[in-house]
Structure formats: C-alpha cells, structure tokens
Design goal:
Layout (H helix, E strand, L loop, with lengths): L5 E6 L2 E6 L10 H16 L5 E6 L10 H6 L3 H5 L3 H20 L4 E6 L2 E3 L1 H6 L4 E5 L3 E3 L15 H5 L1 H9 L3 E3 H7 L4 E3 L4 H12 L4 H17 L2 H15 L3 H22 L5
Parallel strand pairs: 2-3, 3-4, 4-6, 5-7, 6-9
Antiparallel strand pairs: 1-2, 7-8
Helix pairs in contact: 1-4
C-alpha cells in the first residue's frame, strides 16, 4: 500500500491502523480518508486479522475534517463543494460511505483516543465497536456554533442520549475522558502511557472470539440499533445537513471563513462570533 497519512501494521490476529498527521492534529484530509479506507481494505482481506485497532500518532486523536483543505477549494473533492450537488457527492462518497463502512466492518474494531477528539474525529471514533480513552482525551463538537448541524452522522444522541446530546451540542460542551466514561461514550479510561498497551491487550482478548461468531454478534447488535432507527436517523440527519449547509446563513459563514482563515474558524468555535 502507498500510504502517506496512515500507518498499517498487522501482527497476527490484530491489525493497527494509525492516523499519522500529528502536525495537523490528525485532521482528516482527502488523502487521510483514502489512506484509512485502503488500510481497512487490507485488514478486511487478511484472514488472519480478527481485530482492528484505530489509533493516532501525536498528541491528538483527530481534530476533525481538514478545514484548511476545504476552505482552499483546490483539492478535487474540495473544489466540488462549490455547488450543492458537488457538496452532496463529496460528503456521500468520502464521509457517509467510508464511515458507515467502518461501522459495518465485519471484524471487531477498537479506537484508542488521546487528546482532542472533535467533530469528525468524534464521528470517526464512534464508528468503532469499542473506545478506550486516555485520561487526557477531550470530546467535543463545536460545529453548531459554526452554522453547521453537527457534521454528517449525528452520533451524539445514540452515544449520550437525547437530552445530554442536546446540551453537548447546543452548549458546545467539552467532555473529559471521565465524563465520557460516565456517559457511556467510552468503555474505559486509562493513563496516557497505558493507552496502547491496554488497547492491545483488549484486542488480544477480543481476538479469541472466532471470526464467524464475532461477525454474527456484531451484525446482530448493529441490526438491533438499526431496528431502533439508528441508520435511518443518521440518513435523515445527513440530508438535513445538506439543506442547512446550503442556506444563506451557512454560505455566509463559509465565505467569512475563507476570508478570515483558521483564525475565523477558531473564533467561531470559541463562541466569539454569532
């Protein structure tokens, strides 16, 4: 594999996929999303692999989508976003399809989260079956302050419950690792130095389950969630997101970001513009 922004390593029954843009807080550029998808292809094709660990190099798991790339509008997919139909195609192919693929992945997946896990970073982590957080992890989604509706897949009501999700989104809360564990967002919290060893041990235990059994139980639990409406609610939100992102309010915010750059983005996220 010709991977630039992701590392892939298979060790027996466990494959580790590591986001590797530490200087950009592992922001999800087009190349990172494509590399991530290719790494999952490799893990799926390897019959020896039973568990996939999704980790990240550097201080942070992922700060979300690469807004610098999107605002520049020069990369192929970013350039398509100049029209509503292009924006829909971009987000369907690069966000919806690739994220739901991870959620439905036939093997067990475990996210190892440290530092910032924000917006699309949180969305990505929540596609995994299990999440282990370092004690320095912080979970947030400030996109509503930016005029958006909380990125493409609205995971928060399913992870936090409806009332807590509303508070989390409307008030732009940041959850500590302990908060996230109490809310049921993560399975465990461990000291930062113990994050990867803990996840690798968890992966080794999960790998003892025969692949057919793991795939069947995962499918059954996901089927239960879909019976409760998870996939339909995600799809409904995805289309609402398309509408809102093309409103006068959202388009004006986008133009302001293009003019002000990342300083404008940070001001929005901090609540310094409305």
């Amino acid at each position: 594999m010709d991977l630039e922004t992701v590392r892939y390593q298979a060790d027996g029954a466990v494959a580790t996929i590591t986001l590797d843009r530490p200087d950009a807080a592992n922001a999800q550029s087009t190349r990172l999303i494509e590399d991530l998808d290719a790494a999952f292809d490799a893990a799926e094709a390897d019959d020896d692999v039973r568990v996939v660990v999704l980790a990240a190099n550097g201080k942070h798991f992922s700060a979300g989508h690469d807004l610098k790339e999107i605002l520049a509008g020069e990369e192929h997919w970013a350039a398509l976003r100049s029209t509503p139909e292009g924006k829909l195609l971009h987000e369907q192919v690069m966000y919806w399809d690739k994220l739901v693929r991870i959620r439905d992945f036939p093997k067990i997946t475990i996210a190892a989260v440290q530092g910032v896990c924000s917006a699309a970073g949180l969305m990505l982590a929540c596609m995994c079956d299990l999440i282990v957080a370092a004690d320095d992890a912080k979970f947030s989604n400030p996109v509503l302050r930016m005029g958006g509706v909380g990125v493409e897949l609205l995971v928060e009501p399913w992870e936090l419950g409806a009332r807590k999700a509303k508070e989390f989104l409307f008030c732009s809360l940041t959850l500590t690792a302990d908060d996230a564990e109490k809310a049921g967002l993560v399975n465990r919290v461990v000291p930062r130095a113990e994050l990867l060893p803990t996840v690798q041990e968890m992966a080794a235990q999960a790998a003892l389950v025969p692949p057919i059994t793991a795939a069947a139980v995962k499918d059954t639990i996901n089927h239960m969630l879909d019976g409760q409406g998870q996939r339909d609610s995600w799809r409904y939100h995805f289309m609402v997101h398309q509408f809102v992102s093309n409103t006068e309010t959202a388009l004006a915010r986008t133009e302001a970001r293009k003019a002000g750059g990342m300083d404008a983005v940070k001001a929005e996220q901090a609540g310094e513009s409305a």
